[in-house]
Amino acid sequence: MAFLNEFRAAGFVEAVLLHAKRNARTKNQRALAAEVRALR
Amino acid sequence: MLQSAEQLRAGVWQAYSAVADQPAHEHPFAVGREFAEKLGYPAEILNQLPAASVEAFTGVSNVSIVAEIPPGARVLDLGCGAGLDSLIAAQRVGPHGFVIGIDFSEAMLARARQSASEAQLPQVEFRSGDAERIPLDDASIDVALVNGIFNLNPARAEIFRELARVVRPGGRVYSAELILKEPLPAETQASLTDWFS
């Protein structure tokens, strides 16, 4: 996943996806809200 | 029509400052308490927090609820807006921790500071700054919260680099952002009209 890879490329040793789901932030059917935890 | 990075940045600044000035007006993205509850912020927590922060809340998820924030931690809320996540983090770190909220909208920061004063949370401080040039020392942060700012800043790669600089080894970032299941059309990627949604 590109979002996780951006953390890793910046020097974070680990980046994990906690959740990815549709929510009230967007009506775009292509979009999901992703929650990520990255370890430095 | 294609937008330059400067035009996009100015548009985002204008849109978020407008939320701070008139949160009840119509905006290109969801705002406020009802939206916060839909994202999973517990009503009993929102009830305890000043309206100045709750009514102007914008974000992608309830990162300050999801995150592990131990007592005494040094927390950064990058792109803090009106300060909702910062205030929740300040309650969680307690009097021996501290929270720094950073945002580029002075109108949003005014709300955040008002709320911190009302809530009597001296362990939280709000500073003006840009996410791609975080005004903090290297390795000075235990936990960083980032609630939906990456997609709004053309200097996206610099934000990740700055987070890696200010978060100490072993520290964590909790971040929420909209991601795509499939690519957007090129005209949408560079259009301010659709930038927020």
Question: How would you explain this protein's 3D organization?
Answer:
The complex is a heterodimer of chains A (40) and B (197). Chain A has one domain (2-39). Chain A is 20% helix and 42% strand. Chain A has one helix at 2-9; strands at 14-21, 31-39. Chain A has a two-stranded antiparallel ribbon with strand order 1-2. Chain B has nine helices and five strands. In chain B, α1 (5-21) packs parallel to α7 (106-118). In chain B, 38% of the residues lie in helices and 19% in strands. Chain B has helices at residues 5-21, 33-39, 43-46, 51-54, 63-66, 84-93, 106-118, 156-166, 186-189, and strands at 74-78, 98-103, 124-128, 141-147, 167-180. The model of chain B has no long low-confidence stretch (mean pLDDT 92). The longest helix of chain B has 17 residues, at 5-21. Chains A and B meet through α1, β1 and β2 of A and α2, α8 and β5 of B.
Number of helices of chain B: 9
Strand content of chain B: 15-25%
Number of DSSP strand runs of chain A: 2
Oligomer: heterodimer
What is Rg of chain B? 16 Å
Lateral arrangement of strands in the main beta sheet of chain B: 3-2-1-4-5
CATH fold name of chain B, please?
A: Rossmann fold
Whole-number tally of structural domains of chain A: 1
The global form of chain A is: elongated
Shape of chain B: globular
User: What's the order of the H and E elements of chain A?
Assistant: HEE
Strand order across the biggest sheet of chain A?
1-2
Descriptive tags:
heterodimer; A: 40 residues; alpha+beta; two-stranded antiparallel sheet; 20% helix; 42% strand; B: 197 residues; alpha/beta; Rossmann fold; 5-stranded parallel beta sheet; 9 helices; 38% helix; 19% strand; globular
